[in-house]
């Protein structure tokens, strides 16, 4: 351990040791006074302002945190509401699809029923029309066959069958025989 000891070279000093690590007493006194003045000024003026700024920042941060928590809660509520609406919309869509299927089945059934009724009506109309045309054909054939039969009978008999009553009886008898023979064959 070597100690550095510097002796004062100035005249009038009493040969005391000067240690550069340890300040002299008057330096310590003045440094302490200045430090106390600066500390008092710092505590009295600067520290309250600094504390005020820090409190404002802490309040802003706390407000931001509470706003973030509120926003997160709002987002969770909105998500829940959206999920509920989506679930309701899916349920409604399923109900609408089911109603549409039911209506389509009803429309198809109504269409089939209407088609069956139309087919029946058309069939009845066609039957009536066929009956009317057959009746017309029978009347027309009676007239044609009657005139042909009268003419043929006149030629065979050799006398004129101009009498309408006689002619009508002859035609009716011939047609009755014709109908009977057709009925027997069927």
What does this structure look like?
The structure is a single chain. This protein has helices at residues 25-157, 164-185, and strands at residues 6-7, 17-18. The chain has 186 residues and is an all-alpha fold. Strands 1-2 form a two-stranded antiparallel sheet. The longest helix is centred in the middle third of the chain and has 133 residues, at 25-157. It is rod-shaped and about 195 Å long. It starts with 5 loop residues before the first strand and ends with a helix. Mean pLDDT is 83; it is low at 4-13.
Which tags fit this structure?
two-stranded antiparallel sheet, mainly alpha, single chain, 2 strands, 186 residues, rod-shaped
**DSSP strand tally:** 2
Q: Categorize the overall geometry.
A: rod-shaped
Order of helical and strand elements: EEHH
- Our measurement of the CA-to-CA distance between the termini, rounded to an integer number of angstroms, reads 156 Å
What can be said about the biggest beta sheet? Answer: 2 strands, antiparallel
The average pLDDT score comes to 83
What proportion of the residues is helical, as a percent range? over 70%
- Largest sheet, spatial ordering of strands: 1-2
Unreliably modeled segments:
4-13
Helix/strand/pairing category? mainly alpha
How many helix segments?
Answer: 2
Integer-rounded radius of gyration: 66 Å
What fraction of the residues are assigned to beta strands by DSSP? Answer: under 5%
């Amino acid at each position: 351990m070597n100690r550095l000891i510097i002796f004062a070279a100035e005249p009038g000093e009493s040969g005391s040791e000067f240690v550069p690590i340890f300040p002299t007493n008057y330096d310590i006194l003045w440094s302490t006074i200045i430090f106390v003045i600066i500390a008092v000024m710092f505590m009295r003026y600067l520290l309250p302002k600094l504390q005020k700024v820090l409190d404002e920042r802490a309040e802003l941060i706390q407000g931001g945190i509470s706003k973030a928590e509120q926003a997160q809660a709002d987002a969770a509520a909105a998500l829940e509401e959206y999920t509920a609406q989506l679930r309701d919309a899916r349920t409604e869509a399923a109900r609408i699809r089911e109603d549409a299927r039911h209506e389509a089945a009803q429309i198809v059934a109504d269409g089939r029923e209407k088609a069956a009724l139309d087919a029946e009506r058309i069939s009845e109309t066609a039957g009536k029309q066929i009956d009317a045309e057959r009746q017309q054909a029978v009347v027309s054939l009676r007239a044609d066959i009657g005139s042909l039969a009268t003419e043929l009978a006149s030629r065979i008999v050799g006398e004129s069958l101009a009498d309408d009553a006689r002619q009508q009886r002859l035609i009716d008898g011939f047609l009755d025989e014709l109908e009977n023979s057709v009925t027997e064959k069927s």
